[in-house]
């Protein structure tokens, strides 16, 4: 039954002829017919451009219309292709599963999909296009096909249609309406190059039929392969050693075949057996029922009569490692991921992300091995890198797990132009849990080093002040050409030392008690006090209160004072404030 819908009105089309529904595995899906003006044909007047024709549960939009007073010739295209006007503006490229891409493609439309495809592939820059273009790109990337179903549904499969092992012999139980043979792409031998100088050549059995002269295919170069047998299987899949052949057949015994179904066709003229497919199908209505009018068979791979259909699976085995890469792309960022998995023994992963305002990277590696002294050792190492506008940060970690415990090393580096800081941090935790950290921080006004030990070797020049709590400084000789200021005492030697300690003065030397005009005193405390060749001078000849040299001695701290009198040029000796004598200076 045919119906037409136009401007929300639906009517039946009862008077028509030359009705054909054409469907191909490449997605083409049309219906065509001629409608006649008749009083029992209410839908005839509704047939206009853009009207919807419903046939066998499928909807088609009128795209071509040829009209005369008594009839209309119509060609309508599946409404699936209305989606050419629906765009997906965003970018959704990268390595993703089929269903992730398909969900993106059909989002916001009134179409749904089903699929039996479970793999993931890389599609860079996917998106920013109409739905039909995106579906075609999706099928090209996943090497799959789609079939339009009633109810605004689409089904995706690596090959639509079943495989029931049906067999047909050309010229016997099938008859050709038309035949096309193209041998321009036929090749009979191919060479493959792998790693470490590996080279293999494969010659097709059909070389006996077509020869090898001018039949060499483009070589394959793939350094993932190190085993000749595996490389041979790889290049066999690349070789097209058969002509392109298609037959349009009547439907004597093919009326029950579905689009895409695989059947065997014996073509004795070329002594080959093809596993062909129903690549196109014409349907029409007879006695009120839809039937198959004709089918087109096309070859996928020829087989000699003694051959059997087999599928080759090639495994690349390099130290039992499996490699996997993934690329993801959206309008906001691009992500790259690479993984290498060798079971629990060796695992590595790298991830890189590029955004409009940041670049981020991370690398991790897990390795397990056995050490004669440490037992089973597990090492986990990672590093990450972040770059933003005005800031770069990097960090590296290393962790070792043994029977002794866990040892951790960590290094961080940060360049922050926003806050004007450059910093480096190194930390280490040993098997006993002791943590040691060193930190270096630099700003425009401060360079700070914080660590348990700081070691300088060679000449060190300091052109400014050393301040704050310096702790204990241990060194050899310290040579300072300018002033030294000490807040409290200066200690020479230690309690256990018996060696004499000395202060040496080159040229003229002064010891001055200076307290900004307040009374000052210099006290010398010792069991024995000696002055060898000393000279005392007053600040002025007229100074009345001569300077005094005070010394406290004895077990009860007896006070001895020496006073110089410029007028008499004498030094007077006072003990406990009592004048005991004087000495004339000559």
Structure description:
- The structure is a single chain.
- The protein has 586 residues and is mainly β.
- The protein has 6 domains: 2-81, no CATH class; 87-157, 3-Layer(bab) Sandwich (Phage tail protein beta-alpha-beta fold), CATH 3.55.50; 162-177 and 245-309; 187-241, no CATH class; 356-450; 524-584, no CATH class.
- Helix content is 6%, strand content 48%.
- The chain contains 4 helices and 38 strands.
- Strands 1, 2, 3, 4, 5, 6, 7, 15, 16, 20, 21, 22 and 23 form a 13-stranded mixed β-sheet that branches. A 10-stranded antiparallel β-sheet has the order 24-25-26-27-28-29-30-31-32-33, with no helix packed on it.
- A hairpin with a 2-residue loop joins β28 and β29 (391-402).
- α1 (98-106) packs antiparallel against α2 (131-142).
- The radius of gyration is 49 Å and the shape is elongated.
- The model is unreliable at 300-321 and 538-547 (pLDDT under 50).
User: What would the principal axes of the Cα set say about the shape?
Assistant: elongated
What gap, in angstroms, lies between the N and C termini?
A: 148 Å
Contiguous runs where pLDDT drops below 50 for at least 5 residues: 300-321, 538-547
Structural class: mainly beta
Helix content range = under 10%
Count of domain modules: 6
Radius of gyration: 49 Å
Rounded mean pLDDT is 80
Sheet of most strands: 13 strands, mixed
Please report the total strand number as a whole number: 38
User: What is the percentage of strand-forming residues?
Assistant: over 45%
| Oligomeric state as shown | single chain
Number of helices: 4
